[in-house]
Design a protein that fits this description.
mainly alpha; two-stranded antiparallel ribbon; 5 strands; 50% helix
């Protein structure tokens, strides 16, 4: 029997870590934690492997951990900083912005959800390429999707298309919102509910706990407009 095999039921540490990671991923989604897909996967894997390692430790080490009376939040933050430093020293291109600030806590000591305005400010400081998926400017849309610039700008003025500011006055447009050269139905209603375009697209392009983990933009592409609009209005 190896150290990766649980003597009680035969499950391996790796398999247990996978089960724990999936449980953490579902919990993060259900509680509306706004992470991009890569960060969500990383958070789930880290939590899964840490939790799965505990049953395989020697009894003395398990006892020591069980008697620990320190601040778990600070310990976890230190652990992630060490991981980030190691990854950076190994040449991995990982941003440490997520570790610069600790989330605010309520009186119970639990992290409180970020207000929408705070989330929008965070997105404003991020590069579009890091989170928005495939985007394109008006020239590409005119040449490839045959959308005239005048039509695109009219949609933008009317709030019928998601336009993300890039640089000074330039805007780019997420490609997933177009079908047959037109914005999918429901975009204007979502923008009416979530006025900030970056926040609106961030929500549209990621699994939503309000929609049982489904991706809103994919639902709009499948004509499931009412469910998405209802969820967007509830979020706002």
């Amino acid at each position: 029997m190896t150290r990766f095999q649980n003597p009680s039921d035969g499950i391996s540490q790796e398999a247990l870590a996978g089960l724990m990671a999936e449980a953490v991923r579902q919990a993060l989604m259900q509680h509306g934690v706004m992470l991009d897909a890569e960060a969500l996967t990383s958070a789930s894997k880290i939590a899964g492997h840490v939790a799965a390692a505990l049953p395989f430790l020697p009894p003395a080490q398990r006892l020591a951990i069980g008697s620990f009376k320190g601040e778990w939040t600070d310990l976890a933050s230190d652990f992630l900083r060490v991981m980030t430093g190691k990854a950076t020293s190994d040449g991995a291109a990982i941003s440490d912005r997520a570790f610069e600030r600790s989330p605010p806590k309520s009186e119970t000591g639990r992290p409180t959800p970020q207000p929408i305005a705070k989330r929008a400010a965070d997105l404003q400081s991020m590069l579009i390429e890091d989170w928005a998926g495939e985007v394109a400017g008006s020239t590409y849309l005119e040449e490839r999707l045959r959308i005239p610039r005048s039509t695109l700008h009219r949609w933008q003025r009317r709030g019928e298309v998601v336009a993300l500011r890039k640089g000074g006055r330039k805007h780019v447009f997420p490609l997933a919102q177009f079908i047959d050269g037109r914005p999918v139905p429901g975009i204007s209603e979502v923008l009416s509910a979530i006025a900030n375009p970056r926040l609106a697209w961030f929500w549209l392009s990621r699994p939503s706990p309000e929609l049982n983990g489904r991706v809103p933009i994919e639902m709009l592409r499948d004509d499931m407009v009412e469910d998405v609009v209802r969820a967007a209005r509830g979020l706002s």
